[in-house]
Amino acid sequence: MIDPEPWVGRPHPGPRAKPYPLSAEQREAVEAAIRPARTEVRVARRGQALLLLAAGVGSGDVATLLGVHARTVFKWKARFSKADDPTKVLADGPRSGRPPSLSRRRTLHA
Fold it and tell me: 30 with 87: CB under 8 angstroms?
């Protein structure tokens, strides 16, 4: 995980970023979600962004640290704000598109 301390007090123009409200239970849930070795990269990035935002790191700095565009961080912030529990929206939602055409049953060729 990225240490937010050097980024929180970093001098930069404009007002200070307000820490994103995150309860202790939600913080633990996010840390647990990004810890496993099999976590998807996109889920881990969103989780790390949520932790950095909760520490009071600015959106531009979060984008720099995670290697994404600043607009992506703003979209994530909006996504977290709309949800009752931001830990529930770390993973992608269902995607539209054509459903799988192959059945899950195994067929035997004689």
Answer: yes
